[in-house]
Input
Amino acid sequence: LLGRWPIKDYRATVSFDPHDSGTRIGWAGTFTPVVPGTGRLWAWALKRTVGAMATGLARYSTEQYRAAHPS
Output
C-alpha cells in the first residue's frame, strides 16, 4: 500500500475494543508527506482507504461469526 503513496515515516496503531454487542476498530497514524503542503490531502486519502479496509474487515468478521453461530 505505502510503496505507491508519496508519504514516508508512516506509523499507525490499530485498536480493537469491545463496543455494545461488537467491536470498535480504531486507527491512529502519523506520516510525513514527501511533497510539502500535501499532508491534508494524504491524510484524507489514508482515512478513506483505512476506513474502507476496516469496514470490509468488520463485514467479513460478522459474516464469519454468523456462519459459525447460526441462529
About this structure: Helices lie at 39-68. The chain has one helix and two strands. The chain has a mean pLDDT of 91. The first strand starts at residue 7 and ends at 19.
